[in-house]
């Protein structure tokens, strides 16, 4: 039999928990109360309860301070937190303290008793188990969700022999012959933007919120337990159990359930996710097969058809399918890109990438799995190019999400437009690193700008062309040029154009419209106005006066 302590400064809240809890059915023989964290700590020392339910907002000592004390002094104690999504600091402490569950106020009967069952389940397992290895694992994994997570993950990784670990199975409900099992793979497509906008960039809090939403949608006879995939930063593992019914019912219930989750995550947090529903597992030993099919289904979702709203797909039956069509590789364009970077032509380099994405857009389909592979190839090729120029390896990414974050880049993309924007951001970063190294190795000569203007005066010349090429500031470039030649860059462009205009006006067979276009002016009137401002007479007057003379 067990003892439970309720800590809350509001008597009606304590009374509600007393009334709603199925204490007798769960084997809790005694329930006591405390009005704040300080009184609760004193009761812990004196009474030694097995389980504590603690409110986070209290006078004297709030729930966060209480949990910090428990984490230090009572590491084996099970705690259930009562609070809300908006209590950012409280939520972070709850995660750190690895609480059994996090209940939102006002607490309802179903959520309360589900959390209590979690705690009592592992208490009984720890009490009844005589296996030292199991006891050691339970001690190391004090939080029931964490223990369940480890068991499920070991099964889907094929690292746990199900038949020889029956004591573990009861903790995930797998000892019940009337239950059916399945999985879903949830891929988060814009976690970085969502974490920045809604969770102060705390990715752990985002994952915590996602799993809470999944757990909150529990249905009668159908339960779903979820946790972040330990090896994949953007993936959530969902474990479904159905009590009774046929195996085929599980797929239908899972798809219906996950569609509600996708909509809720979008509406609550602006989070875009896609979900693959795995094939039902005939028994728990086949759970790994179910999850493999779930990941495969999620990976085959077509990026070209995603519009930012997320989607849910079920694993297709295994069949002999034709090999996928070969997607275009960026490797064949790396020479063009090198030429654009060497010449300092940023727009040309972006055009190379944009043309590549145009090819991708023309495909019949582009799966998320293939898009991820191509992204990795793109980063690898740019990294290889950067190393050729002498960029230090610690300034490069290895295509993993965390390494992109380390160099200040997001790896979010929820549709093909965002995918293109990501490739362009990566290009901009790498081109900048290459320019920085190249500029350091080759001394800058302002005469190169003058020569470029002399040869390309008829083009639309922008100062940004030179700042990008030479990796120098606009102000510094303009200052150097004026010191050397007595003109600003724009003034010099105008000077060359006007001198060339006078030369061309000497050819009577050329019309003024033609001269205007030869000088880079698209409008004859604009050219005439510029000429008049510079020489105080129009091109026609200049030509007439030259003829008369």
UniProtKB/TrEMBL annotation:
GO terms for biological process: phosphorelay signal transduction system. The modification 4-aspartylphosphate is found at residue 55. It comes from Cohnella zeiphila. The keyword Transcription applies. This is Response regulator. Pfam families: GGDEF_2, HTH_18, Response_reg. Residues 447-545 form the HTH araC/xylS-type domain. GO terms for cellular component: cytoplasm. The lineage of its organism: Bacteria, Bacillati, Bacillota, Bacilli, Bacillales. The keyword Cytoplasm applies. PANTHER family: HISTIDINE KINASE-RELATED (PTHR42713), TRANSCRIPTIONAL REGULATORY PROTEIN HPTR (PTHR42713:SF3). Gene3D superfamilies: 3.40.50.2300, Homeodomain-like. Keywords: Cytoplasm, DNA-binding, Phosphoprotein, Transcription, Transcription regulation, Two-component regulatory system. It is found in: Cytoplasm. One of its GO terms (molecular function) is sequence-specific DNA binding. PROSITE patterns: HTH_ARAC_FAMILY_1 (PS00041), HTH_ARAC_FAMILY_2 (PS01124), RESPONSE_REGULATORY (PS50110). Residues 3-120 form the Response regulatory domain.
């Amino acid at each position: 039999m067990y003892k439970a302590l309720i800590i809350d400064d509001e008597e009606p809240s304590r009374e509600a928990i007393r009334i709603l809890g199925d204490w007798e059915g769960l084997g809790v023989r005694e329930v006591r109360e405390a009005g704040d964290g300080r009184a609760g700590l004193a009761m812990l020392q004196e009474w030694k309860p097995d389980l504590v339910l603690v409110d986070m907002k209290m006078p004297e000592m709030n729930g966060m301070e209480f949990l910090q004390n428990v984490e230090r002094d009572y590491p084996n104690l099970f705690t259930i937190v009562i609070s809300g999504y908006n209590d950012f600091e409280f939520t972070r402490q709850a995660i750190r303290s690895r609480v059994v569950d996090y209940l939102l106020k006002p607490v309802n009967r179903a959520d309360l008793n589900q959390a209590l069952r979690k705690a009592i389940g592992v208490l009984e397992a720890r009490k009844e188990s005589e296996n030292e290895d199991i006891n050691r694992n339970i001690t190391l994994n004090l939080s029931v969700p964490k223990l369940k997570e480890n068991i499920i993950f070991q099964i889907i990784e094929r690292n746990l022999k199900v038949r020889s670990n029956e004591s573990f199975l009861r903790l995930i409900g797998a000892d019940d012959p009337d239950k059916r099992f399945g999985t879903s793979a949830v891929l988060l497509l814009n976690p970085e933007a969502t974490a920045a906008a809604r969770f102060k960039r705390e990715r752990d809090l985002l994952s915590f919120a996602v799993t809470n939403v999944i757990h909150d949608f529990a249905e009668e006879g159908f339960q779903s337990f979820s946790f972040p995939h330990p090896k994949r930063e953007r993936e959530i593992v969902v474990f479904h159990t159905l009590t009774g019914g046929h195996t085929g019912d599980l797929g239908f219930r899972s798809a219906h359930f996950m569609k509600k989750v996708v909509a809720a995550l979008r509406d609550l947090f602006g989070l875009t996710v896609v979900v693959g529903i795995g094939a039902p597992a005939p028994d728990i030993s086949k759970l790994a097969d179910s999850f493999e099919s779930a990941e495969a289904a999620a990976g085959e979702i077509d990026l070209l058809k995603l519009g930012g709203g997320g989607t849910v797909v079920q694993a297709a039956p295994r069949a002999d399918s034709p090999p996928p069509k070969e997607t275009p590789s960026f490797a064949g364009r790396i020479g063009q890109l090198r030429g654009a970077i060497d010449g300092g032509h940023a727009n040309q380099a972006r055009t190379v990438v944009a043309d590549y994405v145009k090819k991708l857009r023309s495909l019949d389909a582009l799966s998320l799995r293939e898009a991820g592979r191509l992204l990795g190839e793109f980063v690898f090729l740019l990294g290889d190019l950067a190393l050729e120029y002498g960029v230090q390896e610690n300034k490069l990414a290895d295509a993993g999400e965390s390494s992109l974050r380390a160099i200040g880049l997001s790896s979010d993309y929820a549709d093909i437009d965002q995918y293109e924007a990501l490739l362009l951001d990566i290009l901009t970063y790498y081109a900048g690193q290459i320019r920085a190294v190249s500029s350091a190795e080759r001394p800058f000569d302002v005469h190169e700008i003058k020569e470029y203007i002399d040869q390309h005066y008829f083009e639309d010349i922008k100062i940004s062309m030179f700042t990008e090429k030479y990796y120098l500031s606009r102000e510094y470039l303009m200052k150097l040029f004026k010191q050397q030649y007595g003109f600003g860059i724009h003034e010099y462009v105008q000077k060359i154009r006007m001198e060339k205009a006078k030369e061309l006006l000497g050819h009577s067979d050329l019309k003024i419209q033609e001269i205007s276009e030869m000088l880079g002016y698209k409008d004859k009137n604009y050219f005439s106005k510029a000429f008049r401002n510079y020489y105080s007479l129009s091109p026609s007057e200049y030509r007439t006066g030259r003829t008369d003379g």
